[in-house]
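RECORD TYPE: inverse folding
INPUT: structure tokens
STRUCTURE:
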């Protein structure tokens, strides 16, 4: 049984956004597995969005997202936060790399570091984040566990423009996911990620079509 057939009323519809003639130049930032990186890469290959991934920036040596990027010939840059004395210096290095790779839109796809004004001000309204809850509920780490432990019966995921306050900023798209009896954080996170992979590429196209970089 497909996920759609279990929960038809909770799934937001697919929307087909016109992608402008201009190819969006994406820089992806990720810390771990990279399934959202893969979803964006697939959406580009399938011509769902007119974009190119200029570079992957990752902060954890050995993160599987780097293997995924190498497999599809996306340049990778490891910037290990442990080598920087503060968040501002770390973000300064990231901005320098994003500029070097001519990035226009910054996509945080499982980026697990707090950001500073250094990054936000370098790419105003051009940084997009995906978070595994229906924001503003369950910000921060372990959002799936937070939802599971809270007693809510519906959670989901959010794609939003990034503001300075953690997991805040204008919401681009959300998708709801029901919490089923017997769910563990793993089973619930799997269903949430199914939705993340669907709405993240759509939200990138939406942000670009709204012209929020102007
Ligand atoms: C995703 O579920 C994303 O929403 C979450 O990390 C996961 C990364 O998965 N991000 C956050 O919690 C950020 N606050 P992935 O590495 O397989 O894309």
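DESIGNED SEQUENCE:
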């Amino acid at each position: 049984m497909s996920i759609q057939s279990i929960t038809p009323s909770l799934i937001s519809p697919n929307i087909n956004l016109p992608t402008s003639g201009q190819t969006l130049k994406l820089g992806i930032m990720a810390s771990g597995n990279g399934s959202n990186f893969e979803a964006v890469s697939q959406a580009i290959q399938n011509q769902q969005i007119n974009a190119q991934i200029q570079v992957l920036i990752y902060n954890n040596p050995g993160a599987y997202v780097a293997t995924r990027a190498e497999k599809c010939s996306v340049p990778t840059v490891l910037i290990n936060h442990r080598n920087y004395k503060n968040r501002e210096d770390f973000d300064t290095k990231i901005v320098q790399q994003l500029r070097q790779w001519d990035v226009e839109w910054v996509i945080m796809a499982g980026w697990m570091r707090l950001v500073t004004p250094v990054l936000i001000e370098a790419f105003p309204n051009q940084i997009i984040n995906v978070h595994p809850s229906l924001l503003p509920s369950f910000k921060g780490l372990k959002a799936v566990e937070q939802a599971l432990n809270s007693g809510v019966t519906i959670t989901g995921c959010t794609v939003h423009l990034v503001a300075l306050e953690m997991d805040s900023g204008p919401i681009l798209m959300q998708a709801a996911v029901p919490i089923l009896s017997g769910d563990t954080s793993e089973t619930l996170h799997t269903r949430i990620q199914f939705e993340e992979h669907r709405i993240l590429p759509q939200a990138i196209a939406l942000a670009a079509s709204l012209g929020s970089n102007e």
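NOTES: The chain has seven helices and seven strands.
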